[in-house]
Write a structure and sequence with these properties.
By secondary structure, the chain is of the alpha+beta class. The chain folds into two domains: 22-86, no CATH class; 100-153, no CATH class. The protein is 28% helix and 9% strand. It has three helices and two strands, in the order H-H-E-E-H. A two-stranded antiparallel sheet has the order 1-2. Strand 1 (100-107) and strand 2 (110-116) form a beta hairpin. It starts with 21 loop residues before the first helix and ends in a 5-residue tail after the last helix. Bound molecules: flavin-adenine dinucleotide. Flavin-adenine dinucleotide is lined by residues 16, 21, 23, 55-57, 64-67, 69, 101, 103.
């Protein structure tokens, strides 16, 4: 049973739904629960072997960030080529390990960069304590992420 309650607040953070559009989520490709069911290590559809999904649309744990997509697209490209050339994914193909990253803005000029994977252990890209707020992660968030996405990821270089 649920009831409506009113709670005072001075700051609210609302998370938008992270799921496939209904056209996909409710189609035969979708799980009926809003995502596309894929094997989480290969990102290959559980039923249709010539279909792959990545990003917010994919029914995998965590991984709903652009940082996850940055790791996932290389897995998908590799597996897609394997399926097109041989009809299957060899065990030697690299698997997605659940990497995700959250830049947590703690103040103007400071960010904590939480990088982790399905083990929930920190997997920092540089050996710096991820529990510390840092100016360099602020610079990354404010100035580098957008060009990295546009010029790096979209051209397959980042
Ligand atoms: C406020 C906010 C802040 C975030 N900050 C970060 C961050 O700092 N770092 C980070 O890594 N991630 C961040 N994320 C998460 C990140 O933006 C998403 O995980 C990422 O964009 C997912 O990429 P995607 O390609 O799967 O989906 P999307 O980027 O949502 O792309 C899906 C595209 O499909 C289009 N589309 C939808 N329906 C249809 C249709 N029927 N026909 C055709 N096109 C359609 C949409 O218009 C959209 O362009 C943030 C998200 C939000 C909302």
């Amino acid at each position: 049973m649920s009831e409506d309650v009113q709670i005072p607040y001075d700051f609210i953070h609302i998370t938008p739904p992270m799921k496939a559009p209904d056209e996909i989520g409710n189609s035969k490709l979708g799980s009926g629960r809003g995502w596309v069911p894929v094997k989480k290590e290969t990102l290959q559809h559980v039923k249709y072997k010539n279909v792959f999904a990545l990003g917010d649309i994919a029914a995998i744990p965590m991984g709903k960030t652009g940082g996850s997509v940055r790791k996932q697209y290389k897995i998908v490209v590799n597996n897609l080529i394997s399926v097109m050339e041989t009809g299957k994914i060899p065990k030697s193909n690299k698997e997605y390990a659940g990497y995700t990253v959250c830049p947590l803005i703690t103040n103007i000029g400071t960010v904590m960069l939480a990088e982790f994977n399905w083990t929930n252990k920190p997997v920092p890209m540089v050996p710096l304590d991820p529990t510390q707020e840092r100016y360099i992660w602020w610079l990354l968030k404010v100035y580098l992420l957008k060009p990295m996405t546009i010029y790096g990821m979209l051209s397959g270089k980042a």
